[in-house]
Structure prediction request, 444 residues.
Amino acid sequence: MSAILDFPVKAEARPYLEAFGRDRRGSDPDWLARYRNRALARFAEIGFPSRRSEAWRYLDLRALEQRPLLPAEPTTAAAASATRARIAEIGLAEPAFRLVLVDGRFAPELSRIERPPVGVWFASMTAAIAERPNLVRSGLEAAPTDINRPFDSLNAAFFSDGFVLDIGPGTAVEGPVEILHLALEDSRRSLHTRSMVVAGAGSRASIVESFTGIGDYWRNDVVELRLAANAELARVVLVEEGAEAIHLGEAVATLGEAARLSSFLLLLGGRTVRHEVTVRTEGERTRSELDGAFLLSGSQQANILTMVDHAAPEGETREMFKGVATGSAHGAFQGRITVRPGAQKVDAHQMSRNLVLGPRAAIDTKPELEIFADDVKCSHGAAVGDLDEAALFYLRARGIPIEEARRLLVEGFLREALEGVANPVIREHLLHRLSLRLARLEGA
Prediction:
C-alpha cells in the first residue's frame, strides 16, 4: 500500500503497512475495505505520537515504536480447561449475558448470548458487519479523527472483531452484560478490537468489560457508545493485563437529551496502560459520571485521560479518580472539561486524589477547564501525597504490623472510589479483585 501513498510515510508505520499488505480480508464488504485503507493511510501519515504532544506527554511508547507488535492470526489454541478456569476467576458469577473474545476474536463456545430480551441485539462485531452493516458503517464513519488519535486509525485498519450491543427504545436489560477480553496465545503480537453500544431512547443497561492475558502483547481496543434521549448506560472496565502487556483503551461517547452515562475504570495489571474516555453532550440535561482508580507497582506506567465536551445547556459532569503508585511506577491523570458557547447552566466538577508510596514512584495530575459560557458551576482539584502518618500510627499502636497497616490504608483509600459503583454484585467483584492485587503489592 505504501507505494500508492502521495505523502511521506512515518518510519515506525512501515511494518504495519507491510503487515496490512500481507493480511487477507477477502470477507470484508467493499465499504469496509475502503474504510480500512483510508484509516491505514491516516496512521501512515501521523505515525506514533510524540511525548511533545500534551495528550501523550506522560506515556513512554519508545519500546513499542522500536520493536513493533504486529497483528497475527492465532497459531495455537489455549487449553479449554485453562481458559474456563481464567474465565471463572476474572468473570462475574452470574452475568445476564457473556461474550468472550479470545485473542481478539469471538469465542462462541465460551459465550452465553442466546435469547436476549425483545428489542436487544447482542453479537460479535463480525456478525454485526454481516447482519447489521448500516449500523456498523454509520458508527465507523461518524467516529472523530484527529492527530492525537493515531491508534484509533490503526485499530480501524486492523480490527479483527469486537462486540455490538444494540438496545431498542424503552428496553431495559436486567442484570449486567459481560464482555471478557482474553489474550491467551503466548507470543508477541497486537490485538485490535472495535465495539459499539447503541442505547435507544429511554433504554437502560449495564456492561462490564474485563481485560486479561499472558505473554508479550499489545491490546488496542476502541468502543463507541451512543446514547439517545433519556437512555441510561453504566459501563465498568477492569484491566488486569499480563505483566508485559501494553493496553491502549479508548471509549468515545455521544449523549442525547437527558441521557445518563456512568463509567468506572479499575486498572490493576499491565506494563503500560492508557485508558481514554471522550464524552460529547449533544442534548440538554445530560449527566456523566466518570470515576476510576489505578494501583501500580514495580515499573508499571498508567495514564488515564478524560475529555468531556459540553455542547448543550444544563449538563452535569462528575469525575473522581484515585491513584496509588509504589516501587518505581508512574501514573498520570489528565482530564479536560470544555463548556461551549451557549452551553449555560453546566455543572461540572473534577477531582484527582493520589498516593505516592516511596521515593521512586511518581504520579502526575493535570485537570483542566475550558469555559466559554458565563452561567456555569465548574471546579477541579488535585492532590498527591503519602499515607496519613496519624492513621498509620493508630493501627501500629494496636499491634498491626506496618506492612499490613499500610495495605489496609491503601485499600481504604481506593475503596472510596469503588463505592460509587451502583450495582452491588459488580462492586463486590471489583473489591475482591482489588484485594487480591493488594495482597501481592510490591514496595508498599
In short: Residues 143 and 224 are 8 Å apart (CA to CA). The mean pLDDT is 91. The first strand starts at residue 97 and ends at 102.
